[in-house]
Design a protein that fits this description.
The chain has 282 residues and is an all-alpha fold. Helix content is 62%, strand content 1%. Helix 2 crosses helix 4 and helix 3 packs across helix 4.
Length: 282
């Protein structure tokens, strides 16, 4: 298993939009960002709109919400802001003092959305206690201790077996510990990746519910779903699993729709992934 920093680098890279033929207009993100930085809010909103039909990304959605608010389209602004919060926004102060959102702050819907963010922040603060964080850090350290080290497979398997007990105990006590609740710590997801398929099947439903509540990143769910499908000898849905030894992508269920599926989970274009690993085609 790669280090957390490497995971973050790869995941961050996968989230970046790239060029290539796709049903999703990825090029609109850079175009919208350019207009947004220039404070040309109308043009920015016009650029973001066709992309955000598909793409669930907090940063893009928030900039679209700000642009809509600045152009007087309060309904659109609130709709985009709701999607931001659905994805697990946890910082109420950022929204409260965001000047670009001032035009919608008197709306009752804004107050309701803020109440959701405050509730999420309260749960996040409750969970982020030294004892639990130390336990999660220890879980992750053991998950990584001998990962990908030749000759240490048995030692890592023993630690993975111990981690299964620790993981199940934490989930039983706290529920699924999503990365949005733990300041980006994705340790439950990392540990679950290295458990047997039957354990993954046991908890993927709980992880999916956490995604719906905004407590977990949809991207991590997409990775786990694909991993499980590949393990069962089935085509993957999101195109996240790469066979590096043979320099190919594991078979994808619907190549013509894969970018739409990826966009829904906050992942960028499949072409960016193919380019990254120098894979010629799906």
């Amino acid at each position: 298993m790669l280090s957390l920093y490497r995971i973050g680098f790869i995941l961050g890279w996968l989230l970046l939009p790239g060029l290539g033929s796709s049903q999703v207009p990825w090029e609109k993100l850079q175009e919208g960002d350019t207009y947004y930085q220039a404070k040309e809010y109308g043009k920015a909103l016009e650029s973001y709109q066709p992309l955000l039909v598909y793409y669930n990304d907090q940063k893009a959605l928030l900039k679209a919400a700000r642009s809509a608010a600045q152009t007087g389209d309060n309904k659109q602004a609130l709709d985009y802001l709701k999607r931001v919060i659905d994805l697990g926004w946890t910082n109420p102060q950022t929204l409260k003092y965001d000047r670009e959102l001032d035009p919608i702050k008197e709306d009752r819907k804004f107050s309701k959305l803020m109440a959701r963010v405050e509730a999420m922040e309260k749960r996040r603060t409750t969970l982020n206690q030294p004892e639990l964080i130390a336990e999660l850090d220890a879980l992750y350290a053991d998950d990584q201790k001998y990962r990908r080290r030749k000759g240490m497979e048995e030692e890592q398997a023993r630690l993975d077996s111990m981690n299964r007990v620790r993981l199940e105990k934490m989930i039983h006590q706290y529920g699924w510990l999503g990365s949005n609740l733990l300041s980006g710590r994705n340790y439950c997801w990392v540990a679950l990746q290295h458990q047997p398929l039957e354990v993954q099947k046991k908890y993927i439903g709980l992880m999916a519910k956490a995604v719906k509540k905004g407590e977990e990143s949809p991207a991590f769910l997409a990775f786990l779903q694909d991993q499980m499908l590949v393990s069962m000898g089935k085509p993957q849905k999101y195109g996240t699993q790469v066979d590096r030894e043979n320099q190919r992508l594991y078979p994808v269920e619907s190549p013509e729709k894969v970018d739409i599926y990826r966009a829904e989970m906050g992942l960028g274009p499949i072409q960016a992934l193919l380019d990254r690993y120098q894979i010629e085609k799906l």
